[in-house]
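ok new one. same drill as before - structure tokens go in, u give me an amino acid for every spot. 255 of them this time. try not to just spam alanines like last time pls lmao
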């Protein structure tokens, strides 16, 4: 199956119609504010606000939830180590270890905030073509080299992922299984090496093709940005609601 990173960019929701620059600033600000929440109630309210934005974006929530699968793998160690090492009130003794209430709560807090932030970033990326988003970042004075790194990394990650998927299918059709043997480890190593070599060769071909088309270190875009009063109003709403939640959280109004 071909992966299209702009598959949801051409819908016509209120978030899609929002000026991309206002969207970038407001969503990144909201993500930063949500990351500062101190309690689970504040994080849950922020998550509910994030889910509301998914409805406004006109994209099925399941689409965003599929995007958080792999990032959540990296927080599994939180649930392995924090409950045993945080200290505080002992919730359950397990052999020579203790499971601490504070560790479980902290793990949940970090997880909720991480899910909310990942969904927010995906809303920002999915509701505009990546090329237009890159052009908007340039108008926000992001350096061209940094912008090119972001653009190419994001775009060609999916290209190489697709190549890896096809190679794994080919190996499966040739009888390669998932057994944890020395032979299977060697096959996996060969697969990784082949992907690296192919990626390098494809990178050279892409760069040469771009030079032939006049590439000089900057990706030119004809996108014209026009910010409206409605865009500013929506951007303020996206920032103010998480800010109000954080203010209530800091002042102990959420329990």
């Amino acid at each position: 199956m071909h992966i299209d990173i702009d598959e949801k960019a051409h819908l016509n929701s209120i978030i899609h119609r929002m000026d991309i620059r206002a969207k970038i600033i407001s969503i990144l600000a909201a993500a930063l504010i949500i990351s500062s929440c101190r309690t689970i109630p504040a994080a849950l309210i922020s998550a509910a606000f994030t889910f509301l934005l998914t409805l406004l974006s006109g994209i099925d929530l399941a689409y965003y939830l599929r995007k958080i699968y792999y990032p959540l793998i990296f927080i599994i160690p939180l649930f392995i180590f924090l409950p045993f090492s945080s200290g505080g009130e002992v919730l359950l003794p397990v052999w020579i270890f203790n499971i601490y209430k504070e560790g479980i709560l902290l793990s949940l807090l970090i997880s909720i905030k991480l899910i909310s932030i990942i969904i927010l970033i995906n809303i920002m990326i999915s509701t505009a073509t990546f090329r237009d988003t890159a052009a908007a970042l340039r108008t926000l004075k992001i350096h061209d080299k940094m912008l090119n790194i972001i653009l190419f990394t994001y775009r060609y990650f999916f290209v190489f992922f697709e190549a890896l998927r096809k190679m794994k299918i080919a190996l499966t059709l040739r009888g390669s299984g998932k057994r944890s043997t020395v032979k299977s480890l060697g096959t996996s190593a060969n697969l990784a090496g082949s992907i690296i070599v192919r990626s390098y060769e494809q990178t050279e071909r892409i760069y040469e093709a771009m030079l032939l088309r006049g590439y000089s270190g900057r990706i030119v875009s004809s996108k014209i940005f026009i910010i409206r009063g409605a865009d500013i109003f929506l951007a303020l709403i996206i920032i103010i609601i998480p800010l109000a939640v954080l203010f209530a959280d800091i002042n102990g109004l959420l329990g």
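The mean pLDDT is 82. and btw The beta strands are 90-94, 97-100.
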